[in-house]
Amino acid sequence: MSDIVTITPNPAVDVSTTVERIMPVAKLRGTTQQRDPGGGGINVARVITRLGGDVTALYPVGGPTGQLLKQLVESEGVTSLTWTTAEHTREDFFVQERATAQPYRFILPGPTLSESEWQAGLALLARIDPFPRFVVGSGSLPRGVPTDYYARIAALVRARGAQFILDTSGPALAAAVAGGVDLIKPSLREMQELAGGELPDAAAGERAARALVASGKAGTVALTMGHLGALLVTSERVLRAQPLTMVPVNAVGAGDSFLGALVAKLAAGAPLEDAFRFAVAAGAAALLRTGTALCDPSDVNRLLADVRLETA
User: Fold this and answer.
1) What share of the chain has pLDDT > 70, as a percent?
2) For residue 16, what is the enclosing H or E element?
């Protein structure tokens, strides 16, 4: 079995196109079309694979879109471990308006999972032998799945002596953190929800991350803040990275690229500082690509030299 397993409870087929201008009523004819496998954990697995890591993606599939999703995942060289749902896997839709260069993202709710279906995902993870060293949970929870789903996964992973890394939001993130997580990767907005108060700048985000680590609820916080840069906070130190100077094409997939690169480097035994620097470069590299294409390794390596870290 792989060193890393990612879990995506609510995956999707991401459909992307470009139109000249978005307007009501009129037929909007796309000038491009692209289909990518989507969902947080699947995207993380795609990045890890591109960067030479050993990863398996665990996710549910339902109906024709579920089978298409699996084909798309495996076409990128990612090993799949799936279970079946009665309702169809969702599709998401992304449109780039050429006249303004503005992206529009349409996220569909996806299937409702029965108790036996979401329990099947936990059982599938528990049966993995040998168990991976890193388990990454990422993305939203589908309807029907309990809020503490990631918290249950964290407990399972902890019992097997592995590390659990989480990228989600809202009540699912709060429930998991309450029980303890090795590493979380919130955005500034998600960190604000978790902290229960306004975080108007990077300094406020850093204070909230420090408090979370000090509480013992998260071993490490990797906080991505868009134009404010990124932070990596542990009990021993804080690393700060300023955003790279560039003209972004698209923001979709930047967080997943960041996390995929971070986990790939940690699994390869890289020092935390080097892994964080690589993650910052990967997150920036994703901004240069359209749709959910994610980062390209050549862009990551080129941007890596521009990443500068400050240590608190």
Assistant:
1) 99
2) strand 12-19
Helix H or strand E encompassing 132: none
In 3-state terms the chain splits into helix, strand, coil percentages (rounded to 5) of 40, 25, 35
Number of other CB atoms surrounding residue 288 within 10 Å: 18
Angle at CA 74, nearest 5°, toward 78 and 265? Answer: 15
221 membership: H or E segment, kind and range? strand 218-224
Q: Which residues are catalytic?
A: 256
- What are 92's strand-pairing partners? 14
Query: How many C-beta atoms lie closer than 10 Å to residue 165's C-beta?
Result: 27
4-13, 125-134, 250-259: segment of lowest average pLDDT:
250-259
- In this predicted structure, the answer to whether residue 250 has a pLDDT above a threshold of 80 is no
Distance CA(78)–CA(119), nearest Å, equals 24
Task: Concatenate the DSSP letters of all residues of 169-199 into one string.
Answer: -HHHHHHHHHH-EEEE--BHHHHHHHHTS--
**Per-residue confidence (pLDDT) for residue 90, from 0 to 100:** 97
Q: Give SS3 for 295.
A: coil
Q: What is the pLDDT of residue 233?
A: 97
Average pLDDT, whole number, for the chain?
94
> Residue 104 pairs with which residues in a beta bridge?
95
- Match 């009523």 to its residue by tokens: 25
Tell me which residue has tokens 């890289």. Answer: 270
